[in-house]
Amino acid sequence: MKPLLSTFMLIQNLIVILMTNNKLHATHAHDLLGINGGGFSCESWLLGVETNNLRGWKTVPRGCESFVRQYMIGKRYGDDSAVVVGEAEKYARGLKLGGDGKEVWVFDVDDTALSNLPFYAHRGFGARAYNKSEFDVWVNKSRRTALPQSLRLYKTLLSLGIKVVFLSTDFKHDRDIISANLRKVGYITWEKLLVRIHGVKLSTISFKSSQRKELQQEGYKIVGNIGDQWSDILGTPEGDRTFKLPNPMYYVN
Ligand SMILES: *[C@@H]1O[C@H](CO)[C@@H](O)[C@H](O)[C@H]1NC(C)=O
Ligand SMILES: *[C@@H]1O[C@H](CO)[C@@H](O)[C@H](O)[C@H]1NC(C)=O
Ligand SMILES: [Mg+2]
Known about the structure:
With 253 residues, the chain is of the alpha/beta class. Helices cover 50% and strands 13% of the residues. It has helices at 2-33, 42-50, 65-73, 76-93, 117-123, 132-140, 148-160, 175-185, 204-217, 230-233; strands at residues 103-108, 114-115, 145-146, 163-171, 192-196, 221-227, 242-244.
């Protein structure tokens, strides 16, 4: 009778432990999924963002700030970016180059080549976190880090003989800041660093596609194009193949 009783108690304890654990897991998963007040999961919101079904959003939805933080500073953002870059490298390695050195790969700058994550990680990911003047001061100090996966792609492309063109919607007066920051984090050389001329009022899509068109007119062949915004990769000519890095922090029209 005694061994049976203790076995029973052991099993009972196990059940209690398992239930508590499950409850902990459930709470944890709930946080990670960020089921917010709006009744949708932040995972669903993220999928909508990445597929460009949700457009023109101004800020991370209320209730998804901690989800976005977890996504960005946890492992997931790096993992998702690595899938994009892994595919880009596989594609690049399979290319037959013409031998004339005219193949280029277009990189967006913000949150593609250079990461603003340290700023947002410090300030937060919701509407009230962003302060343009503080952001500008921060950017001017070359505080942007390299997005590690993009830097890896950059190095792979150079080793293959594909040249890199950086294409930013920042203005001409920011050009020196961008190039200093690029060099500081390991982007040591490039074919071109294209920025906006002050006063030119074009949408990102119009500006970037017109710059890509000029590249083609100069005889370059755009074999690849990578950005964190759909506006980096939409609009003709978009390049032979486009790659979209994740970015649930902000949306650029
Ligand atoms: C943004 O930051 C600057 C500098 O710290 C501060 O003076 C300004 O009041 C802030 N603006 C807002 C809207 O919080
Ligand atoms: C950042 O640097 C640019 C170029 O030097 C300058 O025009 C701008 O005023 C600076 N902005 C801030 C906030 O320091
Ligand atoms: Mg960008």
